[in-house]
Amino acid sequence: MSTQPEAAAIPVEEVAESEQWRRLSPRMLVVHPLQELIRAAPALLAVLVAGATSGRGPWWSLGGVGLLVVLGVLRWFTTTYRITPRQVQVRKGLVRRQVLTVPTDRVRTVDVDAQALHRILGLAKVTVGTGRSDKGHEGIKLDSLSRDAAERLRDELLHRRGRPVAEEVPGAAPAPVDPEVVLAALEPRWIKFGPFTLSGLVTVGIVGAFISRLLSETNIEPDRFGPLKFVIHQLSSAPLAQAIAEVVVVLIVVVVVASTAGYVLAFWNFRLTRHTGGTLHVSRGAINTRSTTIEERRLHGAEISEPLLLRSARGARVLAITTGLRVGRGAERGGTLLLPPTPRAESERVARAVLANPDAVDIDLVPHGARARQRRYNRALGLGAILAALAFVLWALDVIGLGIAVATLVLLPIGLLLAADRYRSLGHAVAKSPGGTVLVGRQGSLVRRRVMISREGIIGWNVRQSFFQRRAGLATLIATTAAGHQHYEILDVELGEALRVADSVLPGLVTPFLARPES
User: Fold this and answer.
1) Residue 199 forms part of a structural domain
2) Are 62 and 161 within one domain?
3) Are 453 and 438 in contact (CB under 8 A)?
4) Same domain, 379 and 486
5) pLDDT at 60 (0 to 100)
6) Residues of the domain holding 39
7) Cα–Cα distance between 267 and 284 in angstroms, integer?
8) Tens of pLDDT along 80-112?
9) S-S: 373 plus which of 29, 159, 308, 423, CB 3.0-4.6 Å?
């Protein structure tokens, strides 16, 4: 007699309907041509300029626009998808026909993303993550579904409700909603951490580079414009120190405003919720919205990240260590962000809420000892001393001035401060409780990271020793995992302690490599 539970019965009509091939929303006929036009705008502009001499530039550009519109329309006719009880299938392509298939039991995450144009038309883009996203496989993408169909698809794949996924049906009863518990929601006081993210600095740099390139290509002289002419005259007539101070103050103001605006746009309406179906749901965004759903059984840990500026304001953010989400291209864009920059106490509270063993957040870390501290100082001061010595050699050869050579000496005290902070960040621990065993490691100065990985997520160990580590009796313990970055390090720990930690987390795994066989 079989002891396995029987599968829930699904009506034949519902199964047949769920296995029908469906198209994307017809409203994508507006979205995709516009997207293609935006991507090809530089090329179309180049064609227009290149054909200006012959008088055919506008016609060539018009032909290019028409071709892009046709390609965007063809995507709707050539893309179909269906959801079966066992598979997600997508057919696409005209000349090169492709059929993408993902077993439903391989689905790890579902992202529902809606940019401004999508939101206007009531559409969304769905990305189905399969756990291979960090290796260049971004899963299955469906762009564009109606908003309701996208949410039903997410529920079907992750909440396992067993109902068919279809486009909206007039007069149909609304789908039931899982009860949810709100773990965190945006508070106005969080916005003050926006300027400490430095996201505005990147934005200002990109915009500045674009404007500079545009002025160079079009041969436009900035001093011909009234406001710019006044600014250039003011800076050129002021003393050098005053001009530098004015530029720095203006740059700081612009970066602060841009960073704050970016924070608001990215995290407006932020909510982190837990559903009874065993999932975590993150939604955020003011203009472009994004919703990410993570199965908790795929969540193998969390990371509390504290960049230097954010740490100075006693802030932090929380990242998920899970399979199926990209981390190599940026945690926030990859969907691993569980909590945006917030007060550190709030980050710790959320980390405790999502971890199976909350003790991992507060457990005291084991310091790495005097030899690890000595390596921090040797590396920091050694690099500064080499650069300073090289600068004085170049001064002796009349390549640089004495002032530049003397200025390099400031690297030495900076190195001392950096080494001290890096050592203070070092630490590790093994947290054990009825909720599970968690490996905790902390490191970093410019970005301090406290990583907490559950034993179930660790699939092996690497113990690495460089030449200098062997002389100091230290090693780097590396936990390998299928989640997050796939490997997490505990730096410069004594070799015996590294092996003890590995055996404590996964008893017996390293024993065959430690015990000497009897002769």
Assistant:
1) no
2) yes
3) yes
4) no
5) 58
6) 12-167
7) 5
8) 888 888 888 888 887 778 888 888 877 877 888
9) 423
